[in-house]
Amino acid sequence: MEMLAVENVTKEYPTPAEALVVLRGVSFMLDRGQSLAILGPSGSGKSTLLAILGALDSPTSGHVKFGEDSPFQLGETELAAFRRDRVGFVFQDHHLLAQLSVLENVLTPLLADGKPTPNDVARARGLIDRVGLSDRTTHRPSELSGGERQRVAIARALVRSPALLLADEPTGNLDSATAEVVGRLLVELQQEHNSLLVVVTHSQTLADTMQEQRRIEDGRLI
User: Which CATH number, 3.60.15.10, 3.40.50.720, 3.40.50.300, 3.40.640.10, labels domain 3-221?
Assistant: First the structure.
């Protein structure tokens, strides 16, 4: 069973006056299949922590380990492979490519391996069906609602079957009814894929669908 272990992680940014401390000794552990919501006000360090968990940013000090991998001890090539193969991201802004169809957008994480295989396409279509958009596979993002675009983003994040799924305010741009649907779908798919899910959010409603909740206050996780 893969475990995410975060130990005494700090993050500071240099400024002309003194270091800006964003994270102060953050520690927690989660097993695969579990879900965690991290709540906190804007500027509290939620997104910074998520970026570190996904190896998009490095900590100033402390350790992150996922299974047997310590991402920040990997070389550049191995770190890129870790992000590509082990981590799926869902952002507040879906970041779909405007010129691509729904199917093509879901397939984009697989392009690093070359041309998608028939099995890849079948998997992508299966995920699109699972998020309720089988009748939208040829549509461009501009032809979709905000909730539909976010559902495409969830399918894209899962197309490589990542062990670690990270979501940064995934319902932040949606109305309450659509946010509830998208949040419920995110958790259902995470459980079906036995991924480890960490969500940062302002939404108590979304947080209540997770197995665990914590808050960031003054850079500390409580």
Answer: 3.40.50.300
